[in-house]
Sequence to fold (264 residues):
Amino acid sequence: MRILIFPDRARAVQAAVIRVVRQVQDKPEATLGLATGGTMEDVYRGLIDLHRQGAVSFARASSFNLDEYIGIPASHPQSYGFYMRERLFSQVDFAAGATRLPDGASADPAAAAEAYEAEIARLGPIDLQLLGLGQNGHIGFNEPSSSLSSRTRVKTLTASTVEANSRFFAPGEAQPMRAITMGIATILDARRLLLLATGEAKAEATAQLIEGAVSAMWPCTALQMHRDVTVILDEAAAGLLKMRDYYGWVAEQEGAMHIGLAAG
Ligand code: F6R
Fold:
């Protein structure tokens, strides 16, 4: 696990953006795994900026999103399909049909989840999976107690996740309680994982992710089992790490903090 701790959120976000861009520069036909949520909004702004500057084209790339709510149509402003169209897809140059999310509006969500898993198996593996981190340690919508060998399926959200995401819904508006999410094993199938966590609210989950025992109660700890994981943090998210100084020292020795973009 490569752990990179930046002084502030802006620099952490920029480091994540650069790594996504580098992936697509190195392999223009890359399959990206994408996430939603507040943390990713700035990442997508960064990707759009670099795309507009001509640094990256997604024309040959494709993507799979981690998850989608069940029971709201793709046209709903809080659906992840809407989020992705607004915040990324409509502003960069992915080819039509190259971006995919689970079909949360399906009449048969379990079948839709199975079909999504099969599609990832057919078109994957995902080259780079972008991940945020839930305060309760979820990745995708794999809530605490999720099987570490889970595949894409229907999950009922925990009360704490519903509460954390209620800020995106209008007061009194019906909020989905279930989602289709890639499973933990599905996520671990990606060639590389890139997790970004910022802010003090993520400090406990971050400490578990890096230093906790592997456990279904902290689904993010499953990342310890993957061979190519980069965790990008700001100081606030890194606040509870016992070996924080060591991670800084390692990153410095390896020159891992200052990766730039390829010229041209
Ligand atoms: C969303 C997703 C979630 C979020 C996580 C953090 O696609 O997979 O795991 O990454 O809930 O969300 P924010 O960034 O809003 O704190």
About this structure: Residues 35-39, 66-67, 132-134, 138-140 surround fructose -6-phosphate (CB under 6 Å). The chain has a mean pLDDT of 95. The chain has one domain: 2-254. The helical segments are 9-26, 38-52, 80-87, 109-123, 159-165, 184-188, 203-211, 244-254.
